[in-house]
Amino acid sequence: MTDLVPTTCMRCAVGCGHVQRPVEQGYGLDVVRGDASHPVNNGLACQRGVTETADPDGEWLARPLVRRDGDLVPTTLETALERAAEGLEGALDEAGPEGVAVLGSGQQTNEAAYALGKLARGGFGTPYYDANTTLCMASAVTAYYDAFGSDAPPPTYDDIPEAETHLVWGANPAAAHPVMFRWINQSADAEDSELIVVDPIESETADVADLHVPLEPGGDLALARAVLARVVETGRVDEEFVAAATEGFDDLRAELPDAEAAAERAGVSIEDVDRIAAALEDPTLCYWGMGINQSVNGTAASGALIDLCLATGNLRPGSGPFSLTGQANSMGTRVCSSKGTWPGHRPFDDPEHRRAVADHWNVPEPRLPADPGPGPVGIVDAIGDDVEAVFAVATNPVAGMPDATRVREHLEDAFLVVQDAFRSETAELADVVLPAATWGESAGTTTNMERTVSRVRAATETPSGIKTDLELIGAIGDRVVPELFDTPLEPAAVFDELAALTAGTPADLSGISYDRLEEEAAVRWPAPASDVSAGYRYYDGPDANGDDDAADADESWSFPTDSGRAQFSSGRARPLPESTDEAYPLTLTTGRRPDAYNTGVRTREDEPPVARVSPATAVALADELEGGERVDAAVQDDDDAQYGRVVSRRASVTVRVETDESIPDGVVWLPIHHPAVNDLTLPDVDPRSKEPNFKQCAVRLVPPRDRDASAVAEVSA
């Protein structure tokens, strides 16, 4: 029997070690389970990670495809690559570097993300390059840079059992990060510890919380400022820490709102505000996710949560601001891919760093774009103006981006190359489809949300014509920019090149190698030497690196900011881009389901998405419709299922309606995973992070036009 192959789960960003075994005959995986020897999870695994790896749903891409006479037809890999190269090269020749856009993914390995960024920035020279990680993490990243001068959370998983307060804000780790949530819940169950959840929805995480604070959608910044105001008013500021390690607090303190007025704007009682403020006196880990980030106020709200940690001295081991990453390698994409910074978090506009990157890549420095670009929404806007061709790798923008009808229309006007493992809505529009290997079929490394790098290994072969992301990126590069990649791209050699480029940077990987990962399984950056694996960031004192002998050491902090101090934020709330009114009286918000994956390509369903509304909302809507005639939940009955249409100013989507007491009145909840949902959402973005305002827009719920439960979206009149 074939031996078990150790690897890392690519389902979410916890980074659990797995072991996998291939089927005895053919292609695929027979066994997937947690790896007891992996230091991140010690054998724990969630069912989703196992199932979505071993037995995913969705339609596999088994053959290269090209468009002929309007249809996608099978072809050879060589023909598909030549056609892709011709289209991309033609756009570069016609429009220059701005003629090609590249869209990457948090599902790529570090090596593939690095190679794609090298191709986009150093080969094509395009400013129109980004990854779908900007759609979920960019606001947190921007806030980290503002506060600390550097990206990535200060805490690690080692801090979870040491925390006494677990404040989960705008996130649902019980659904999105089950293994990590087990650690959080175990710690919160300890004596004198607690779990507080701030979320408009009574989520799976809120179900087990000691306190659930159901704020209004979009009220996060107001609530965070209300809590900080009460921290100040009740004398809970860690004045010694603030004086020793921060700056900007006096200015922020002078501008804080009245706590009760801010709480009212957030839709929260002052008693709940006081409860949160009091809980911050204990060592607190503040976790947040897309509920905070995906807003026009995402950077400001993320910064306000960091401010709570700074003001209360929660920047020591066992505490701190911990943004929760959704996609498996979002952290690696930020470090490796050159999308927002050069590898190693080198500043994009710094001349010295630009020269270092150009020299390392052996490309002319002027070829490198002057700025990181407009973000994914801005890239779509540029199609048809600057952009003539798009290369999309392991991402599904037609389903994953806001106002998806507009995205679809723009992509239809471009020469589109799609590289993916599964057939998606974006692949349906492509001129060329390159089938790529997926989990269990590729080798490389990944980086989890606590900055830990570990190996990804192939346990099974692939059918003929299926190549890895890294191989396909190299093949495109060799045809379009033949001087860029010196040799065929091999994972170990690419990682060595990447690691060398990060030497001396804030995200230093130069002390990590495949040999070291073979021995240690996982190493946390910054790792500037072969015997270094970092612990808590920015802090030097007792237990900074798990050293119990350092108990008597003095505390000190060091931040890569101009002053060497952490910075309090000054972000102010922008008006939400779309308010409810008589025509659109409900607020749509979106969230994760425990059993679904990203845009659904591995957990695809043919049924309409489920819209959850409160019983009171359902009754009120039923009374308003059909001239006062009762229509249960504002929908018509069809084979014991209740169907309706959610209508926004952009589109109309057929849904299956369920009443759910966990949803607040006046809110419609839809899952992020269904490909029709983002036809409804807004393209407005945070002005600094470029992250879209997914979590709030105005809609109405009406009966379906007929009994056809199709989930295909229609453009609103």
From TrEMBL:
Xref: SUPFAM superfamilies: ADC-like, Formate dehydrogenase/DMSO reductase, domains 1-3
SMART domains in alphabetical order: Molybdop_Fe4S4
Span list, region Disordered: 323-347, 540-611
Composition bias, Polar residues: 323-340, 558-570
Root EC class: oxidoreductase
Residue ranges of every copy of the 4Fe-4S Mo/W bis-MGD-type domain listed in the record: 2-56
Top-level division of the source organism's lineage: Archaea
InterPro entries attached to this UniProt entry: Asp_de-COase-like_dom_sf (IPR009010), MoPterin_dinucl-bd_dom (IPR006657), Mopterin_OxRdtase (IPR006656), Mopterin_OxRdtase_4Fe-4S_dom (IPR006963), Mopterin_OxRdtase_prok_CS (IPR006655), Nitr_red_NasA (IPR054894), Prok_molybdopt-oxidoreductase (IPR050123)
UniProt cross-references to Pfam families, sorted A to Z: Molybdop_Fe4S4, Molybdopterin, Molydop_binding
Keywords of this entry: 4Fe-4S, Iron, Iron-sulfur, Metal-binding, Oxidoreductase
Amino acid composition bias (Acidic residues), ranges on this chain: 545-555
The EC number(s) this enzyme carries: 1.7.99.4
PROSITE patterns to which the protein is assigned, alphabetical: MOLYBDOPTERIN_PROK_2
GO cellular component labels: membrane
The keyword Phosphoprotein belongs to this UniProt entry's keyword annotation: no
Single GO MF annotation: oxidoreductase activity
Protein's UniProt name: Nitrate reductase
